[in-house]
Amino acid sequence: MEQGEKRQTRPAPKGLGGLLRNIGPGVIVSGSVVGSGELLVTTHMGAKVGFVFLWGVIFACLAKFFIQLELGRQCLLHNSTTIEILDRVPGWRLGRTSWLSWVCVIGYFMVTIAVIGILGSVAGLLGAVWPAVPQAAWAGLAFVMMAALLYRGLYEDMEKMVTVLVGTFSFVVIFSVLMLQGTSYAIDSAQLLSGFQFELPTAGALVAISVMGSVGVTAVELFMYPYWIREKGYPDFVGPKDDSPEWQERYRGWMRVLFADASVCTLIALVITCAYYLLGASVLNELNVLPEGIAVAQHVSLIFTETIGQWAYSLFMFGAFCTLFSTLLVFASSSGRIGADFLRQVGMDSLGQGDKHRRMERILQTVFPFCWLLFIWIEPGGLDFVLQGARVNNYLLIPMAYGILHLAMRTRGDERMPLSIELGLLFTIWLIINFTAISLYQAG
Q1: Could you identify which of 19, 113, 265, 356 might form a hypothetical disulfide with 260, taking C-beta atoms 3.0 to 4.6 angstroms apart as the criterion?
Q2: Which among 284, 289, 276, 292 is positioned nearest to 382, based on CA atoms?
Q3: Residue 113 has pLDDT above 80, yes or no
Q4: CB-based contacts of 305, cutoff 8 Å, min separation 6
């Protein structure tokens, strides 16, 4: 289904089976989430501080749920992209666009440094498996694979690819946690309880900010979410707002689908992130191995070889490639859509919603990854880039949360979120701001 192609309104599915068959945007977002944060940053944090920050990992996964839900609601009500949603926030404007859109778009692309680190980690991973080929060549091959797979630029292609990639490694990591309990690294109840003392370890304060910025549905994934919602068709299925009983019924029905979609996305992130953290805290912390550099994936492989056996090294490398490559795919595809949308918003009126817009998306989703590749060739890097990008990702949450809260409070009538969601949104934003401030204070 091409972007901009009009679909007919239709009633929302009913029953759990109908809901699950119609989710999809959250699955794609999970493909970006279950990558740099879970595989790289979370294991690094576990290796650095042990079990003590388990509470923070869980909070980081759950904290953005209400922001994601309200951003999805704004998209559903107005059939708007993220940039169009943020553009409704009043204040100073530049190039016909709200200051908040500028801030968030700039922040989004600053997080690109993390994706550069992921591309470097993919190259390091493949170089560890086949050392005869230079890592620079592996990075180039990864770019070519991305460009080829994304060539058509269709939503359905993305959903299928990401579902397979995420599902593959999710099974592997959960299996590894279960196998862990039969080894000398088995986790006991005292270790788990130590992770809920709500302490913020000074030694890992900056990494804690990176954890908040890189696990769960992060700021960049929140930014992507409305684009995937529109391409899945939810706003078209609801139809333009006319306050008729039929429209109200469709709106409430598709909000239930949206709630299920966001919930599945959050659940996937929570389960996989906690699994990685526990593996890092139990295995890497005891071995005193801190994942870092471009060989970070090879360091992390110890959590599998030490729990399952040496035979699992190849299995891990395959799974790690699936995990990291899914993040690259989703980020590249999203960046093309967001870049084209922003150019149209600031004044390039020729980029409407037709063929020209789609052509620009395809161009940008290749140009951006090529820039990442050039950076890797000039300055190879892995986890350091990911950590820096994750910190920016955390800071980006604050202006995005402000914009969503402002718009949520302006929504009136039956379309306004329930009081429970509103209170959850307020509490979430308060916690994010305080968590960031305390982490910066301890790091300084």
Answers
A1: 19
A2: 292
A3: no
A4: 312, 313, 316
Q: Tell me: the pLDDT tens digits for 235-258? A: 999 999 887 899 999 999 999 999
The rounded Cα 199 to chain-centroid distance in angstroms is 26
Which has more pLDDT, 80 or 172? 80
Q: In this predicted structure, what is the pLDDT of residue 57?
A: 84
Mean pLDDT, range 110-122, rounded to an integer: 81
Rounded Cα distance between 108 and 166, Å, is 23
Cβ neighbours of residue 432 closer than 8 Å, sequence gap 6 or more: 63, 212, 397, 398, 401
Instruction: Write the single-letter amino acid at 43.
Output: T
Indicate whether 388 pLDDT > 50: yes
Q: Which amino acid is at 405?
A: L
Query: How many other CB atoms sit within 10 Å of the CB of residue 437?
Result: 10
Dist. CA 107–CA 97, nearest whole Å: 15
